[in-house]
Amino acid sequence: MIEKIEIKNFRSLEQFQFNTTKPVILLEGPNGVGKTSVLEAIYFAATTKSHRTSTEKDMIEHDKPYAMVRLKTSDAQHEIILSEKGKRTLINKVEIKKISDYIGKLHLVMFAPEDLLLVKGSPSERRYFMDLEMMQVSKEYLRWLNHYKKILKQRNALLKKLKVDDDYTFLNILAEQLYEVGEKIYDARETFLAEINTYLKASNLKYKDFLVEIRYEPNLTKEAWLKYLKTKQKQDILYEQTTTGIHKDDFEVLFNGHPAKDYASQGTQRLITIEIKLALLEWIKEKTKKDVVLLLDDVLSELDSERQEQFLTSISNAHQTFISSAIPLNTKLDLQKVILSKEKQDGSK
Q1: Which of 7, 40, 112, 251 could lock onto 297 through a cystine, CB 3.0 to 4.6 A?
Q2: In terms of Cα–Cα distance, which of 324, 348, 288, 341 is closest to 38?
C-alpha cells in the first residue's frame, strides 16, 4: 500500500503531500484544482509514463526546472524526477539507471476517460495497452518487444535502399529474426487476452445482460505471416516498409456478442472499460502475487447513486483505491477524504 505521497512542481501542483490512512482515498474538489494531476503523478511514479501526454515536459509546472513525485509504500520508497535532461528514477534513494529495472516494482491499474479509446480508438491505442500491461509483469516480454522494434527498424531501413531485382539474402535473414521474436509476442498477447477474458467472466460489475469479451485480432496468423515474409519481399520493397506483422495487431471489445464501439452507448462503454481494468487488476495480482493499487479518475460521474454504492462496495475491501470526484459522494463507506481547492494544495483531510 502507498502510505505517503509527495508531489512537487507537477502540472499545477507546486507542493502537495498527504499520508494515506485508509484503503479507499477520495480526492474531492471542483474541476481544475488538480485531482487528475495527483492520479497522473502516482501513475507516472510507478510506470514512468503519463496516461495523458507523450510530451513529458508538459508535466513540469511552468517556469520550474523539474518535477518530482515520491511514493512511500510499506516496503520501499519510489521516486521519479523529471527535467529537461530526462528522467531519474530512484528506489530507497538509490538511483536506478535502467528504466526497465524500475518499472514493475509498484503495480497499479488506472482508469481515466482517455481509456475509452480501448473500445473506440485506433489499433495503436490497443497495442499500447497490451504492451504496457505485459511489460509491467514480464521483463521477458519487454526484452522481446525491444528486440522486435530494433529488427523492424533495421528491416525498414533496408527496404528503403533495396530494389526489386536486388539480392534478398540479408532481407530474408532479418525476416527470420523478426518472425522468431514476433512469434513469441504473438503467443504472449493471445494468452494475455484469453486470461483477461477469464477474469471478465467473474467481474464485480456484472449486471443483467452485460457480457464483455475481448477478441484478439492479429494482423495475420503466424503461418500466413511467415509465408508472407518468405514470398512477398517485393511488396515490402515497393512500400519501403514491413507491411505485415505483430506491429499491426489489434483486438476487438465485444458487448453481448457485438462490437462495443458500434452497439454500446457512451455510458455503457465507460462501464465496459472499467470492467476491463478490474479484470486487468486481478490478472496482475495473480501474476505478481502482490497487491495492486487502483486509480479511478472521474469514474463515478455517469453512474447513478445505486451503482456508485455497488461499485464502491465491490472494490472497498480488495485493493487500495484512489478516486477523484468533482461531486460529493453520499456513501456509507469508511473512506479517507482529501479535499483539493485552489487555495490549498497540501492535502487537507
Answers
A1: 112
A2: 324
Q: For the chain, first and last CA: distance in Å?
A: 19
Print pLDDT tens along the chain (349 aa): 899 999 999 999 999 999 998 889 999 988 889 999 999 999 999 999 998 888 899 999 999 999 999 999 988 999 999 999 999 999 999 999 998 889 888 999 999 888 999 999 999 999 999 999 999 899 999 999 999 999 999 999 999 999 999 999 999 999 999 999 999 999 999 999 999 999 998 875 556 678 999 999 999 999 999 999 999 999 999 999 999 999 999 999 999 999 999 999 988 898 899 899 989 999 999 999 988 999 999 887 667 777 777 777 777 666 799 999 887 777 777 789 898 987 655 444 3
C-alpha 192/C-alpha 287 separation (Å) is: 11
User: Do residues 222 and 186 make contact, with C-beta atoms less than 8 angstroms apart?
Assistant: yes
Q: Helix, strand, or coil here: 302?
A: coil
Please state the pTM of the whole predicted model. Answer: 0.88
Q: How far is CA 83 from the centre of its chain?
A: 23
**In whole angstroms, what separates CA 50 from the centre of its chain?**
9
